[in-house]
Specification:
Length: 262
């Protein structure tokens, strides 16, 4: 069992912050799962959106730290949605249900893309006050899988998990990173076929963020600065420590001249 899952911090989080289930759509099968921690009088909280492999509790460290400093934090696990507009409609209804006019959104990977698309969706009546993006993207074309997006729903769960696991670091890593990977693999195992298929569909269907619609939103991009040089002669890391898949992604970004999008 991974060290994080049995750590005192994780057990404290699970025992003190209740997991809530909320339905905002007509379809009762679409259930939002969330942890809402911190002072309820705060009307513009930080909302966390996980990556493809993540669940709402993957941000427990951030929740514990930020609520300890007085912030209100909501970490979400969204239901099965098959297109971006459907997700944005559902997210808007959730904010309405929680009586939140505006929010700050932290999004990791797919979560960051969804955050940008929601800010774009709501640009005429803004609901997003700021964005914090971690290892995210603004154009799904970088994955070169838009042609397979429509077939993910047909694939069995084990195959979908294999696709996601293929993006995890496989080389030697430090112990803390290894524990984090083990924890994310465990969270991935808890996701059903429908959840994974829908997330991969949202991740890969042909779409991009229209920059003019979110240009007024303050954005902070969190990433490791040196990753942009992976696969080039300016890399400051041993190539053996970088997966072949990551090298291909960075190579494509440089060739397409869109590395600044991330």
């Amino acid at each position: 069992m991974g060290e994080i899952k049995v750590s005192p911090d994780y057990n404290w989080f699970r025992s003190t912050v209740p997991l809530k289930k909320i339905i905002v759509d007509d379809d009762d099968s679409k259930v939002w799962s969330l942890y809402d921690a911190g002072p309820r009088n705060i009307r513009c909280p930080v909302i966390f959106l996980p990556p493809v492999s993540g669940t709402a509790d993957v941000f427990f460290h951030q929740i514990l730290a930020l609520t300890g400093w007085g912030y209100r934090v909501i970490s979400l696990q969204y239901p099965v949605y098959w297109d971006l507009l459907e997700f944005c409609d559902g997210f808007r209804k959730l904010l309405d249900h929680l009586q939140l006019d505006k929010v700050h959104i932290f999004g990791a990977s797919l979560g960051g893309f969804l955050a940008q698309k929601f800010a774009e969706y709501a640009h005429k009546s803004p609901r997003v006050h700021s964005l914090i993006l971690c290892n995210s993207f603004s154009d799904t074309s970088i994955f070169n899988q838009s042609w397979t997006a429509s077939s993910f729903w047909l694939m069995p769960g084990f195959m979908l998990k294999k696709i996601v696991l293929g993006n995890f670091t496989t080389g030697p890593v430090d112990p803390k990173m290894a524990d984090a990977i083990d924890f994310m693999v465990d969270r991935l195992e808890s996701l059903g076929q429908g959840e994974l298929a829908s997330r991969l569909t949202l991740n890969c269907q042909n779409s991009y963020v229209e920059p003019h619609k979110i240009k007024e939103v303050p954005v902070t991009i969190m990433d490791i600065h040196l990753r942009q040089f992976h696969g080039t002669r300016y890399a400051a890391i041993d190539p053996a420590m970088v997966s072949a898949e990551e090298l291909e992604v960075h190579k494509a970004r440089f060739e397409n001249g869109n590395e600044e999008d991330l």
